[in-house]
Amino acid sequence: MTTRDDNVVIRSLTQIGACGLFLLTVLAAIPRSMRHGRETLRQIWFVGAMSLTIVMTCGLFVGMVLGLQLYDVLSIFGGTSATGTVVAIAIYRELGPVVTALLFAGRAGTSITAEIGLMRATDQLDAMEMMAVDPVAYVAAPRFLAGVIALPLLGVVFCAMGVFGGHLVGVTWLGIDNGTFWSNMTAAVDVHKDIINGVLLKSFAFGIVVSLIAVFQGYTTPPTSEGVAYATTRTVVASSIAILALDFVLTSFLI
Amino acid sequence: MTDDAIVRVRGLTTVLNGKTIFDSLDLDIPRGKVTAIMGPSGTGKTTLLKHITGQMRGDAGSIEVDGQNVPALSREKLFELRERIGYLFQNSALLTDFDVFENVAFPLRQHTKLPEELVRNIVLNKLQAVGLRGAAKLMPTELSGGMARRVALARAIVFDPALILYDEPFVGLDPIALNQVLLLIRTLNETLGITSVLVAHELAAVQKVADHVYLIANGKVVAQGAPDTLANDGSPWTAQFFGGQPDGPVPFQYPAGDYATALGFPGGKA
């Protein structure tokens, strides 16, 4: 006998399977989508450049609050000179890629889902099909690519702003020596482990997951206003869970 | 059945969610004519258009368009066929990111590498044909329903298709816009020789524009003929549909179980 919980599990597994198949369709459409290079650039501008304000602001405040908390704790042990080091490592390895991806899902993922969902609801995707234009190549693939390209770049900006925020609080406000702040940080941070694996690789992986979920939810949404609303919500919920779960898996391999 | 048919439907059977939409449907669309497909709501008229364009596939039967069996076509071949078919959506389905000019130019830009000047001339020519050359710079949100439909029509004919399918082209139009669309359908048919298929409910409008009418109900063609004579052919289907009778072969009640049982009376049927 099938219970309600079984149905939820089966529905979720079905969605994950369908999402995987959709990823293959999008990947297969990427070579054809190169014809629409201008559309991909437009989407990079829309999901990347237009997300800069929120990413920079949040990066700054995350770095500032981290600097403040660490200074408070480290001062107990007389180790405030390590503030810059710990701020940088925490941001590069975890907070930078994860918080950027969460912000990206909320800012860009939802708008991608809503836009494609409304295109579905107003027959625009069917109209493209009827004009012999593949909507996966024209609509889905450029947005997917844009997310995959934009998220690592946004992650780098977030990290830079976070370190700047930590410096602002630690050095400018609380009086840690500027030379100590930077020299301890540069001595402890490893480019391969912290920047390439920490910021870039994780952001790239999150970019694939968030963009795929956003495009998939929009593309498969029921063509109703309620359907678009639910799909937008699902993008945030599914992306958030996927980001945090994938972060644990990646960290366990990279650490 | 017609010898020179551009669309030939044979034995089409489609079941959706347990409901039989088409039950071995046979139908021919004569080349170069305006054919109307009419029938009660929910009878599958738009679904039939989707079968003709390969957007949907039936469970059995064949659909030939210009000699090609649509369900058997690969996606590439289907797209090649669709370049010769125009489709007017009920809600126009204009691309909301683009203005009127770019909407009409969209298929040209996607499928050709024509110089910009030629694209401009073709688009302006099509917009002139639908009377909206002056609206080229307007966005879809700035258009009335009738104007949007005419823009969609200009986009549908931008490649001079052999076949154009109109899904409910008269819905929601005021008498002026309705007559403009009627005039366009007839003019395109006569001047460009385009075969037209239109799904519609409005008998008065259909009588003005169509050469042949199919009445579909219960998954089959229940009547067909010239629009002037069909309404008076004496069959109960045409009498109910064209007479607007609320009950008849198409029942007033949607199929349901026993009413007394549903109300909880013991013993079921009273």
Which chain pair shows the most residues in contact?
A: A-B, 14 and 20 residues
Silhouette of chain B: globular
Q: SSE string of chain B, helix = H, strand = E?
A: EEEHEEHEHHHEHEHEEHHH
Number of helices, where a helix is a run of at least 4 consecutive DSSP H or I residues of chain B: 10
Describe this entry's structure for a reader.
The complex is a heterodimer of chains A (255) and B (270). Helices cover 86% and strands 0% of the residues of chain A. Chain A is mainly alpha-helical. Chain B has 270 residues and is an alpha/beta fold. Chain B has helices at residues 45-52, 75-82, 100-111, 116-129, 145-156, 175-192, 203-209, 227-230, 236-243, 259-262, and strands at residues 5-16, 19-30, 34-38, 60-65, 68-69, 85-88, 163-167, 195-199, 212-217, 220-225. In chain B, helix 3 packs across helix 4, helix 3 (100-111) packs parallel to helix 5 and helix 4 crosses helix 5 (145-156). Chain B is globular, with a radius of gyration of 21 Å. The N and C termini of chain B lie far apart (48 Å). The relative contact order of chain B is 0.15. The model of chain B has no long low-confidence stretch (mean pLDDT 88). The chains are: A mainly alpha (255), B alpha/beta (270). The A-B interface holds A 118-119, 122-124, 126-127, 129-134, 138 and B 53, 55, 79-80, 82-83, 85, 87, 89-91, 93-96, 106-107, 110-111, 155.
Notable characteristics:
heterodimer, A: 255 residues, mainly alpha, 9 helices, 86% helix, B: 270 residues, alpha/beta, six-stranded mixed beta sheet, four-stranded antiparallel beta sheet, 10 helices, 35% helix, 23% strand, globular
Quick recap:
The complex is a heterodimer of chains A (255) and B (270). With 255 residues, chain A is mainly alpha-helical.
Blueprint of the fold:
The complex is a heterodimer of chains A (255) and B (270).
Chain A: H1 4-33, H2 37-47, H3 52-74, H4 83-121, H5 124-130, H6 135-173, H7 178-188, H8 191-219, H9 225-254
Helix pairs in contact in A: 1-6, 2-6, 3-4, 3-6, 4-6, 4-7, 4-8, 4-9, 6-8, 8-9
Chain B: E1 5-16, E2 19-30, E3 34-38, H1 45-52, E4 60-65, E5 68-69, H2 75-82, E6 85-88, H3 100-111, H4 116-129, H5 145-156, E7 163-167, H6 175-192, E8 195-199, H7 203-209, E9 212-217, E10 220-225, H8 227-230, H9 236-243, H10 259-262
Parallel strand pairs in B: 3-8, 3-9, 6-7, 7-8
Antiparallel strand pairs in B: 1-2, 1-4, 4-5, 9-10
Helix pairs in contact in B: 3-4, 3-5, 4-5
